[in-house]
Every structure is written in C-alpha cells, then in structure tokens.
Amino acid sequence: MSRSTAAPKAPVIVPVHSGARLAVRGGAPVSANPVPFMSTALSEADIAAATAVLKSGMLRQAARCAELEKRFGEMSGARHMLTCANGTVALQLAYEALVEPGDEVLVPAWSFIATVAMVVARGATPVFCDALPDTMQVDPADLERRITPRTTAISVTHLYGCPVDIDAVQMIAAKHKLRVIYDAAQAHLSTYRGRGIGEFGDAVTYSLYATKNLATGEGGLLSTNDPGLARTFGLLRSHGETDKYLHERVGYNYRLNDIAAAIGCSRLDRLPEQTAARREAASRYNSMVAAVDGLEGPATTPGAEPVYHLYTVKLDPARFTCTRDEFCAALKAEGVPTAVHYPRPLTRQPALAKFAREPLPVVESLCRRVFCLPMHHDLGAEHFRVVGEALAKVAAAYRA
Fold first, then answer.
1. How would you class 227 by CB atoms within 10 Å of its CB: exposed for 0-12, middle for 13-18, buried for 19 or more?
2. 211 in the same domain as 82
3. Average pLDDT rounded to a whole number, residues 242-266
4. Both 212 and 242 in a single domain?
5. Among candidate residues 277, 313, 311, 302, the one with its CA nearest the CA of residue 394
6. Among 228, 244, 268, where does a domain finish?
C-alpha cells in the first residue's frame, strides 16, 4: 500500500504577534474582523440562471439537469452522470443497486454519517475501518484485514476533498471480487494520477449542499461507467418508470429540479478557477502550519490532487498546555473561526454504536486533535495575514 506525502510548502509568513496577550485573556485580537469561514454567496449570474428557469415555468427535472449531468460527467471522467435530490440519496441509490440486505460493507469510521447510514438503511452491515494517521483517509491495509465471506462491497470517502489510495482500494476489490462505491461529496474535480475520480469504482456520489465546492443549496450527483448500472440508477431515481405510468420496478422520487441545476451549471463555470484558488490557499496554509511546532497540515495521498473542501490541521496535545477545543476558542477570539470535522468517530455515534466491534486507535486520536481553518476561494492577503499571526500567537501562549 502506498504511503502519503505532504504537499509542497509556500514561503513561510513570519508573524508579528507571537508574544502578545491572548484575546481570550483580555488582550487585543489579531483582527477585530473575523476571517470568513466559508464563501457561499450566489453571483448575479447564478441568480439570473435560476430566474430564467422560474420565468420558463419548467421547474421540474429537465434541460438544465441534463446539462449539469453532461458537463460534470465530462469534467470528472464519468461516462454516465445523474442528478438527484441530495448526496445522501445518491448513496442510497448506489447501495440499493450494488448491495443486498445482509451483506457486509467495509466503511470508514472517519467520515460524515451519511456514508454509513445509508448502508444501514439498505439492511446491510457496516464494518468500520481505521484511518491513516497522515492523510486521514481510510487505511487500505485495515480494509483488507476486515474482509469476511459476507463482504460484498467497499464504500469509502474522499475525505476533505483528497482522494483515497484508489490503486490500493481497487486492487483489494479486484482480488476479493468486491464492488466499490466512492463518496466524493467533498471532492468535486479532484483527480488521481491525472484522471478524474469519476473514472474509478462502480459508483461515485457527490453532494451539492450549500457549503460544498459545487453547491446548489440541496442536490446530489451519482455517476458510473456501467450503462446497465446507469439505467438501474435512473429507474430507482424516478419510480422505476420506463414510460408514462409504466413502472418496471419499485423506485423513489429522488429527482433534482431545474432551478437547482441552473444554479449548478452557472457555478460550474467558475469551479475550475475557484478550485485553483483553494489549492493556492492550501499552499499558503501549509507554510503557516509548518512554521508552528505542534501543528501538522494535511498530507496528500500519493498521486492525488486534492480540492481542499476543508483544510484540516492536526494538533499535538503533547506540545501545548491546552486542549484542541481551547486552542480553537483562542483562535476564534483572535479573529479566526474554526470547525471540527469530526468531533467523534462514527463508531461512537449512538445510531451506529451497535456496529462498532473494537476501538480504532487512529480515528480515536483524530477526533481529539483535528480542526479546520477557513477555506474557500475568496480568501485574500489580509485573511492569510490574520490566520498566520493568530496561529503563531495562540501556539506561543499555550506552548508546553
């Protein structure tokens, strides 16, 4: 299995507030104006695209959904792309077509709950796997250790916008004759060894939630390179209907509408440029974080090109006199909001606890150590100054 390497570092930014009194202790903050944690505003073009659909009266799934499917399919390397109501139902459609009740499905313990909850909804059994300590992606070696005669599929997340070790996952799947579902809810336009992530696996799912790199408010995408699966997904998405009032199988109403799709098409025009901005922001952050003893930026799976839906930092508690949460509270007071993705592994979610078979040491460590810095395409020089100075100031104040 391949190991992970850190991304190249940009020039180090030298902070000027590293000896000052913390704002949480009554000192002056680095900035009175907080750095925006995300950027989700619609552009005038987005609003015009949605308005055009409203004026047309064709509000249901129609031409704009078809356009989004075609364009994003081409951009991600997938032969067949379907819009759907949200990322969770995209997973549900994939599992219904690829997994049977009673099957075991290998899943990450470090992910958003939807990846695993829809396995349970299918009547299958999730088998939790640990993460790699550097990339935080699922550990392929741990995946393979947990295969049993009941295992039929692997479902893994391209977490934080960084692809997993796809070569390793595909090798395991081929060796044991398993299906593969990739949850790419956070990974729009990420690539692996120069290829779009839509080229891999049996199915790839995406979320178009309001905070995602490509957002329509609510919405999802589901891709495959198998025409038979694509037909099955399409039937399941819309009542199993093959003709008006002719239903081949039981299905659902999981369609997207053209209003949301029009917003998606408009935003897709800017997505490559915004993705480049996120990568540049990550490069700046790599420099800042590397300059602070006790903090570690995200490593990248070899061969992968992340899109940085989130920029996740790991804190070494042995290097500080505070907890991760206290460190984050101090950053917030200095003008740098943070978030924790995720504060507990899925093995400790009450809804999934009965499926937890044993402690997973890496994810248990990550849930106590990680936090996310502001990450989006609108970060500017002043934002980077504030983040760099705040990190250094808080780290110096809490140095062990």
1. exposed
2. yes
3. 97
4. yes
5. 313
6. 268
Best CA proximity match to 302, nearest among 55, 1, 13: 1
The per-residue pLDDT of the chain, averaged, comes to 95
Which pLDDT belongs to residue 6? Answer: 43
In the chain, what percentage of residues exceed pLDDT 90?
94
- Do 158 and 164 form a contact (C-beta atoms < 8 A)? yes
User: How far apart (Å, rounded) are the C-alpha atoms in residues 61 and 43?
Assistant: 22
Q: What is the DSSP letter of 217?
A: B
d(CA 166, CA 180): 10
Place of tokens 């899925």: 346
Tens digits of per-residue pLDDT, 37-77?
999 999 999 999 999 999 999 999 999 999 999 999 999 99
CA-CA distance, 49 to 204, in Å (whole number)?
Answer: 27
Residues 6+ apart with CB under 8 A from 340: 324, 325, 328, 370, 371, 372
**Please, are residues 78 and 223 in contact by the beta-carbon 8 Å criterion?**
yes
CA atoms of 318 and 293, how far apart (whole Å): 11
**Co-location of 212 and 341 in the same domain:** no
Which amino acid is residue 382, in one-letter code?
A: E
Assessment of whether the complete model's pTM goes beyond 0.90: yes
Inform me whether the pLDDT recorded for 296 exceeds 70.
yes
The domain containing residue 118 runs over which residues?
Answer: 44-268
Please list, in sequence order, all residues whose beta carbon lies within 8 angstroms of the beta carbon of residue 235, skipping any fewer than 6 positions away.
241, 242, 248, 249, 251
Give the CATH number for residue 57.
3.40.640.10
Cβ neighbour number for residue 184 with a 10 Å cutoff: 30
User: Do 252 and 283 fall into the same domain?
Assistant: no
Residues 358 and 320 in one domain: yes
Residue carrying the six token digits 């490559």: 272
Site of tokens 């081409």:
74
CA distances from 100 to 2, 15, 127, 129, 242 (A): 31, 55, 15, 20, 23
Work out how many domains the chain is built from and give that number.
2
Question: Which DSSP state fits 134?
Answer: T
At position 8, the amino acid (one-letter code) is: P
Classify burial at 185, counting beta carbons within 10 Å of its beta carbon; exposed 0-12, middle 13-18, buried 19 or more: buried
Nearest by Cα to 131 from 109, 151, 116: 109
Task: Please report the pLDDT score of residue 18 as a whole number.
Answer: 52
The secondary structure element, H or E, covering residue 196 is: strand 195-196
